[in-house]
Write the structure tokens for this entry.
Amino acid sequence: MRTCNRIVLALACLASLSCSSDHTESITVVSFGGSYARASVLAYHQAFTKETGIEVRLEDYNGGLAQIRAQVDAGNVFWDVVDLEMPDAELACNEGIIELVDLNAMPDGVGGEPAQQDYPANTLTECGPAGLYYSTIYAYNSRYVGEHAPSSIEDFFDLDTFPGRRGMRRVPFANLEFALMADGVPLGEVYATLDTAEGLDRAFAKLDTIKNDVVWWEAGAQPPQMLADGEVVMSTAYNGRVFNAQILEAQPFVVVWDGQLLSFGGPLGIVAGTPRFEAALAFVHFANRPQSQANISKYISYSPVRLSAGALVGNHVDTGIDMHPHMPASPENTRRALKSDWRWWSEHREELNERFSAWLAR
Amino acid sequence: MGYKPVFFATASGHIGGQPLKHPSTHVEYLGVSKTYDGEQWIVEELELTVQRGEFLTLLGPSGSGKTTCLMMLAGFEAPTRGDIRIAGKSVQGIPADKRGIGVVFQNYALFPHMTVGGNLAFPLEVRGMAESERRARVDKALALVRMSGFEGRLPRALSGGQQQRVAIARALVFEPELVLMDEPLGALDRRLREELQFEIRRIHRELGVTIVYVTHDQQEAMVMSDRVAVFSHGRIEQIASPEVLYEEPARSFVARFIGENNLIKGEVSEVKGGVCTVQVEGGAMTATHLGDLSRGDQTLVAVRPERIQLRPDPGTYANEFTATVEDVTFLGDHLRMRFNLFGQADFIAKLPNIVGHGAVLPDDEVRLGWAALDCRALNFVDI
Amino acid sequence: MPRARLISLALVLPLLAFVGVTFVAPLASLLSKSAYETRVHDVIPETMSVLDTWDGHGLPPEAAFATIAKELPSARADRTLLRLSGAANRLRPGMRIFIAATAQRVPRAEFAGTWRETLAGIDEGWADPQTWRVIKQAATKFSLRHYLQALDLEQRPDGSIGARPEQERVYMPLLWRTLVVSFFVTLLCFVIGYPIAMLIADSPPRRRNLLLLLVLVPFWTSLLVRTTAWIVLLQRQGVINDVLVSFGLLGDDTRLEMIYNMTGTFVAMTHVLLPFMVLPLYSVMRSIPENQLRASASLGASPMQGFVRVYFPQTLPGVGAGALLVFILSIGYYITPALVGGSSGQLISNMIAYHVQTSLNWGLAAALSSILLAAIIVLYLAFNRLVGIDRMRLG
């Protein structure tokens, strides 16, 4: 009888073990890696796991929809939530490869106001609400630049005055805008110009002038590395990555805010057909809380999109410095800033990607 | 090095084996030593003179330094000490390609990517000879080695013997006065070897060039050479004509190396002119001797197997002993018998296959005899 | 068949099966994808059978509108719609959204009497015959359009085939660049590898083993480690530049740019491929007897003449084998050039990888692979004609 009891006890233990491991649900969240992904983990991934018990596994990618398409197409979805770019989010939900989100179910603002009223125009969409403001800027390493430092977007394209290689992201986005701004197109006419065949040719022609001196990057972590190594004299970059290198690694980088491309970012898409939809949705709701958005700015210089989260922005968590001067949307930094038109990009991204890779290959 | 037309020139009056009428020095080794590692001497204090038109063979077991000697002459190795002179001039510092010496290698060293004609024309081309003359020379050289008509073949389509003929022709085609041959027949079978030995001798006679020939085959050395230098451990043991080497070996090494010899250890008890008495295990032996043997010296007595008589009439020979037959080997024209003499079962006799000799059986006690002239007491240097 | 042959056949059977499964079958399936594919066709099979009878002029019959209105939403539900929209989008940008949007809206649309009207009501693009031509072309099972694209050709509206506009020509210039890069990498490998192989072949056995080891080390190092090591060495603030600057050979502002350009590509690729040149050369050189050069010297040839006329010709089989190996391998290289080659590091294989992994245009990737394969076979045959493959020594 006693032996029997022991066996039952042992079996029960085994069962409880296996049950408990079944209970630890986990989802895979895919983001852009580096200091941005780290900021997201600290800002809300950990808090989400603490609150729900759902483990979050982090993977890196460099943007684009190819991998999501491949997973959905093959019927083998192993990514659950993907941190997208706004134009891609729009494209993805039109194609049906990410799930639409119910805007009414979005968490309320700080003061209890409904989500619909807590987002700026054009940022709350069923394809994934924007999570943050970021900027594509260019930066240089003051160690390798003499007294005469570049200060405008025109300087980035001026190889005569500022010789040396440039780092640029291997996509048309941002590069075409920079090219036109540097070519003298006023801010307000950049997208209208890009909308014409001549305007596009003009942008590519401007890029042609520096093409031989460009080192192309794909991951957001690369530009600070290339700048630190002196591999490029200046590089376009996400402003937050440069900020982290400045603050945490004491790199003598200087951000040139002139001609910055201010963009909404961080929409979280739930990959269509994921077997972990409920957990993924819970994660998206959690990430869209005002506090989650604001937490990001404790770790990296991206500001929250939600109106009510703006007041929650404070100091950098490690160094205590005031984040406001480093934010892309701060008045100091926006004297000549272009707001990116993600709707235009979602319409033209596909064909421009094709044209860009053909242009690169030539 | 000039290219005198020695081709088909009358040899300077010598016939193989005979001394030259007007000897003149062609090659001299003056105190030449060679070491690779600074410890082991491959060649030591070598003194050697080669006469113009001579066929000199360097004979010795492998590792005796004979090939190194040849390579130093060819210019592929440099002496560590000493000097080599050709026609009175030191060749030190002159690279191989400026020495104008023909070399025949053991494995032919034909250029596999060139035809026979191309191989022969090569030395002429690098000398900038006109094509018409080249062709005439190539034809002549091929005729000399009886290989006319093979110009268009590639070396790999030839037999070993044919390849070596071509190699010889190539070493001669640019008419060198001095030709070196490094075991040229080593890779051939016996029959071909004998055939080519004859050919090389004929060519040597026809051209009158000086040939320095390296081999480890003493029979080959005997057949071909005017003189043979016997090498051992980097030194020349003896240099002489084949006859002298055979009949009058100066050292035990030569006695052992050239032909077959029975060597019996003993001590000199009496010296009288060119004859001495040697006390051996089983009695006293009378032997001729060279050099300076004196009473009390240790010596080896060398007896050629073919000089031994079976059952001689008593008193015919200075040396007569009784031995036990160990075994008899029938070899057609002769019988090879092994005897136990003085307790050593390694005494060999070669006896002609004549009536009576065939009746000898193992364990028979027989009397053996040989003349004092056929029995030589050697300077006892190395046993 | 004799018993012995049956047994030997049985023994090689596993190998044949292995080669068949892992090499022949995937290759065949890939090559067939370049011209024949049912993946897209099977998204709208009924519509395609209606369109079979449509000559491409004017709008297709009402039946086509009716079936596609039925098949698009169900394809969306099955998540197979991507295949059609992706393929159509490649033929005409914008089709991806157009098809996706239609599929989404058809179930909610009000029926307007005919399906033709209904679809045109959703998006007037449906009233454009060009839309239908694109859909039909995208879903056709057998098509040579991938080959046309890979050859930078296009079918004009009048049916004739001609070159694409200058700025759209991508693949032929890339193929050419790939061949040029491969040629120079081969040349560099030869120039650097020949003396190395000679040195090794001439060394005493102990040093020979050490030198061979050094040549083989790159083989045993991970590709990424190797490439990263080159980045560390070659970059502007890298080891080589630092050394040159510290010796005063270069100013701090005139540091050499040796990476993210052609130099980087050549250096890294030559390093990786060098063993493939050295090993066959070494093996051939080992087989050349030492007395060949002695013979040539004894015949009066200077060392230079001896090398040019006697030694080098005998190493040609090794040169041929090494060059062919290096050339063919460098044609297929893409990770290394992409990492260290900057803009010029784009080679044809990068494009194939891009279409396999990113754009998911397997048909085009297959067509490009086929063309590359054909180019290599042509080169191989030409090489065989010139050098003779039976004379080659692979070591």
The first strand of chain B starts at residue 25 and ends at 35. The domain at 25-101+176-247 of chain B is CATH 3.40.50.300 (Rossmann fold). The two ends of chain B are 45 Å apart (CA to CA). The helical segments of chain B are 66-74, 116-125, 131-144, 160-172, 190-207, 218-224, 242-247, 252-257.
